[in-house]
Amino acid sequence: MSPASASSLHRIWAVIPAAGIGQRAVAHSTAAATTQPPLPKQYHRLLGRSLLAHTLHAFAQVPTICHTVVVIAPDDTVFASQTEHAFARTQAWPVGGASRAASVRNGLAVLATHYQAQPEDWVLVHDAARCLITPEWIERLIQACQNDAIGGLLALPLPDTLKEEQPRSASSGLDEGGKPARVAQTVPRSGKWLAHTPQMFRLGLLQAALDGNNLPSITDEASAIELAGHAPQLVPSSAQNFKVTYPEDFALAEAVLRARNEVASPMKDVL
């Protein structure tokens, strides 16, 4: 499918893939060490709310989004059991696939089939574990992309020096000889960006990009659009828009949320 002509008159939808477990985040959790199935990462709690609930709350505050489809696993029993996930214009669909890309593709099909979303409509896809997303950042992406022929993504210029490592075992952290991993070379960081979400593309264009045999190699929607021969727009993001990935990330995300709450709450003892 060819890119659409620039127009802001089409509807805007959102898809939140939330069908995974998040093995890296739960690897050291108590649940992972027992015979009980680990709690999927998106349902871990931060300040009394699940990661997913924080994410959905932000999207529910963006009035230009017609509806948010949450893609959950077919055997998910947590989402419906927690009322904190009930937001206006939001519904979960148990159509999660074998990969993130497959889940997104299934979510797009739900939009087209059940909500009559049109090929020229916009779709924002967002990681459930990027729970620090704000309505302002979502609206920034919409404003930047709604008149773009391709679409784009929130992204952050690489702030650190980038190193490429020598071959090693991913599971042990050691190289092929059993020694600690070592630097192979320094990669110039100029022009390098960290891909964040949301990522915003036309429904038809994204469906076509995900309709192939390369789903396992697609790590985000922008990469699928790139494989289709297009160049997505890079829209500046925030360092706070990180993906909760490792166990220590939960404490960092909680600290950010606490700081926001302190700023938003009325100051005490002013008088």
UniProtKB/TrEMBL annotation:
EC number: 2.7.7.60
Domain of life per record: Bacteria
GO annotation (BP), single: isopentenyl diphosphate biosynthetic process, methylerythritol 4-phosphate pathway
Record-annotated membrane-spanning stretches: none
Coiled coil: none
Keywords: Isoprene biosynthesis, Nucleotidyltransferase, Transferase
Pathway where this protein functions: Isoprenoid biosynthesis; isopentenyl diphosphate biosynthesis via DXP pathway; isopentenyl diphosphate from 1-deoxy-D-xylulose 5-phosphate: step 2/6
Reported function: Catalyzes the formation of 4-diphosphocytidyl-2-C-methyl-D-erythritol from CTP and 2-C-methyl-D-erythritol 4-phosphate (MEP).
Protein name: 2-C-methyl-D-erythritol 4-phosphate cytidylyltransferase
Gene: ispD
